[in-house]
């Protein structure tokens, strides 16, 4: 599985692509950052981010896209930009028919370091070790994007199986409910038929 990890941000949007499978060390495919000038309008900056992600998907052909789930922060302006960049990433992926997964920061940290409270330095160090890189990926946005991709490679298959199992259970419940509804309708029709027949017999008996 080849996964594009996106660490959303308006000024710096980290991108990292890894290839691998659950239980196996993933390999680095590409890593980088999309930067947008702060003097541009937000709409123009989002267009630049969209174009950059489009280019990466076209060039590297990932099988899925993993995006960091945005949480509220004290700096409302920062979280707004992060959410907007996140939305752009999801739209680009959906437009190309790629599955999109959202992973929380603690989930990514736990997958990469074993602790959901790990700091950025620890995450970067573990990403460097897992991918056997000659040097640490910089800036932190790039390392976080790789961590997202690694997290999805290692956990994505399990998540898919759980989703498939849940979907199968829902479908089974729907079929069972449908069968119950059909049985109820059939019983109601049979009862109505019996009542109608009884009424006809009563009418015929009265005519005699």
UniProtKB/TrEMBL annotation:
Spans through the membrane: none
Residues annotated for Mg(2+) 1 binding in this entry: 7, 141
Enzyme class: hydrolase
EC nos: 3.1.21.10
Cofactor: how bound: Binds 2 Mg(2+) ion per subunit.
Compartments, record wording: Cytoplasm
GO MF assignments: crossover junction DNA endonuclease activity; DNA binding; magnesium ion binding
InterPro entries with a match to the protein in the record: RNaseH-like_sf, RNaseH_sf, X-over_junc_endoDNase_Mg_BS, X-over_junc_endoDNase_RuvC
Keywords, sorted A to Z: Cytoplasm, DNA damage, DNA recombination, DNA repair, DNA-binding, Endonuclease, Hydrolase, Magnesium, Metal-binding, Nuclease
Keyword set includes DNA-binding: yes
SUPFAM superfamilies listed in its UniProt record: Ribonuclease H-like (SSF53098)
GO biological process, one term: DNA repair
UniProt keyword Cytoplasm, yes or no: yes
Pfam families (UniProt xref): RuvC
Active-site positions on this chain: 7, 68, 141
Function: The RuvA-RuvB-RuvC complex processes Holliday junction (HJ) DNA during genetic recombination and DNA repair. Endonuclease that resolves HJ intermediates. Cleaves cruciform DNA by making single-stranded nicks across the HJ at symmetrical positions within the homologous arms, yielding a 5'-phosphate and a 3'-hydroxyl group; requires a central core of homology in the junction. The consensus cleavage sequence is 5'-(A/T)TT(C/G)-3'. Cleavage occurs on the 3'-side of the TT dinucleotide at the point of strand exchange.
Quaternary structure note: Homodimer which binds Holliday junction (HJ) DNA. The HJ becomes 2-fold symmetrical on binding to RuvC with unstacked arms; it has a different conformation from HJ DNA in complex with RuvA. In the full resolvosome a probable DNA-RuvA(4)-RuvB(12)-RuvC(2) complex forms which resolves the HJ.
Family recorded in the similarity comment: Belongs to the RuvC family.
Protein name per UniProt: Crossover junction endodeoxyribonuclease RuvC
Source organism: Kribbella flavida (strain DSM 17836 / JCM 10339 / NBRC 14399)
Gene that produces this protein: ruvC
């Amino acid at each position: 599985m080849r996964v594009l990890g996106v660490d959303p941000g308006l000024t710096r949007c980290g991108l990292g692509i890894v290839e691998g499978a659950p239980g196996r060390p993933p390999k680095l495919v590409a890593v980088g950052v999309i930067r947008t000038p702060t003097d541009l309008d937000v709409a123009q900056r989002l267009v630049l981010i969209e174009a950059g992600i489009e280019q990466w998907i076209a060039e590297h052909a990932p099988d899925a896209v993993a995006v960091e789930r945005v949480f509220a922060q004290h700096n409302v302006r920062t979280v707004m930009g992060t959410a907007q960049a996140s939305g752009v990433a999801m739209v680009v992926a959906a437009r190309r028919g790629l599955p999109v997964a959202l992973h929380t920061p603690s989930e990514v940290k736990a997958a990469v370091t074993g602790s959901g409270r790990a700091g950025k330095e620890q995450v970067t160090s573990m990403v460097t070790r897992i991918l056997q890189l000659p040097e640490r990926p910089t800036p932190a946005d790039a390392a976080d994007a790789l961590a997202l991709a690694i997290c999805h490679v290692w956990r994505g298959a399990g998540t898919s199986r759980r989703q498939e199992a849940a979907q199968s259970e829902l479908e089974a419940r729907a079929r069972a409910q449908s069968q119950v509804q059909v049985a109820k309708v059939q019983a109601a029709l049979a009862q109505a038929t019996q009542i109608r027949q009884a009424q006809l017999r009563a009418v015929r008996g009265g005519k005699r």
